[in-house]
Fold this protein.
Amino acid sequence: MPRMNNEPGMNLLGQGHTDYPTTYAPQILEAFDNKHPGNDYMVTLHCPEFTSLCPKTGQPDFATIIINYIPGPRLVESKSLKLYLFSFRNHGDFHEDCVNIIMKDLVKLMEPKYIEVKGNFTPRGGISIIPFANYGDEKYADYAKDRLFDGLATGGK
């Protein structure tokens, strides 16, 4: 069955005008129902234009954010995710904080079976930082732990 234009909880997609948030805005995230909740499948979101601010210097930080998740009852709507990630543009937090905040906001929104968020931040002062945060429900808790420590062996790549 095709999706309807008036799907509950989705207000941003299809609007003729987009308002970009200027401060951290988790309330902008929207989700839609998973039409295949009995299937375990992976969704990957690649966000190459993430920016935030260093909380100490106010200098901009740039990253590619990669989100992989196995949906539970809901999936994140991509336009709302784009605007949500844009809301970090003037937000001052360390790289590790940004990645954990994104993961927790998406867990709260979607209740995924599994989710991981990785930030590949561009080098500053000769050091790149690649934080990785993940979560797994009861079925995927062991997988989440294994994936967390897989990152150590690969240097977070």
About this structure: The chain has a mean pLDDT of 89. The two ends are 39 Å apart (CA to CA). Residues 95-110 form the longest helix (16 residues).
